[in-house]
Every structure is written in C-alpha cells, then in structure tokens.
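dumping this here so i dont lose it
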C-alpha cells in the first residue's frame, strides 16, 4: 500500500501542505468525478502516477499487470488528505463512492 498522509505546517497565518518534494513531475491532472462513478480500468506501461484526494473518497482496485486471479486484486480506500502512488504496469480501477 502506497498511502501517505500529507504533512501540514500551521500557524496563525494559515497552513502550508507539501504535496511533492524532490521529484520530477511529467504532468499534473485534476479529476472531478460524479459520486458513484467508476473510471480508469487500465494501466500505464511507461509512467506512474500519484492521486491526491481533496474531496470525498476513492476506492482504488489494483493488481500487477499480467496477474489474473481475483485474489491478486488489492483494494485501497483513500480519504481526504491521502496521497497514493500507482506504479507503472499496475492495472487500476477507481470507484468514487461519494
């Protein structure tokens, strides 16, 4: 499981949250999905991606590409503030319950 809680620095002026630190980023996308919808159901052969939950929650189902058994699937539930890494060659399906 690749879940990381974001560190937040707070003082009287507000807060700062580090999202990425010391890494190369190829792209950044914002995904808005209607509650109850499912998307993805694919894998990325050349790149990995991070998911940051800002609103609602996400159920992500993953398995290494080439594996076919139901027991190979790993379910991870993400909530606001979670950041998750999906490595390359990892099949993933994302369901947004709320």
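and the seq i came up w/
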């Amino acid at each position: 499981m690749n879940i990381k809680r974001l560190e937040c620095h707070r003082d009287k002026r507000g807060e700062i949250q580090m999202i990425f630190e010391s890494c190369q980023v190829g792209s950044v996308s914002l995904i808005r999905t209607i509650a109850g919808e499912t998307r993805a159901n694919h894998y990325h052969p050349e790149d990995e991606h991070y998911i940051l939950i800002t609103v609602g929650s996400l159920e992500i189902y993953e398995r290494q590409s080439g594996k076919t058994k139901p027991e190979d699937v790993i379910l991870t539930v993400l909530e606001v503030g979670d950041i998750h890494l999906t490595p390359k060659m990892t099949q993933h399906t994302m369901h947004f319950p709320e």
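The first strand starts at residue 3 and ends at 5.
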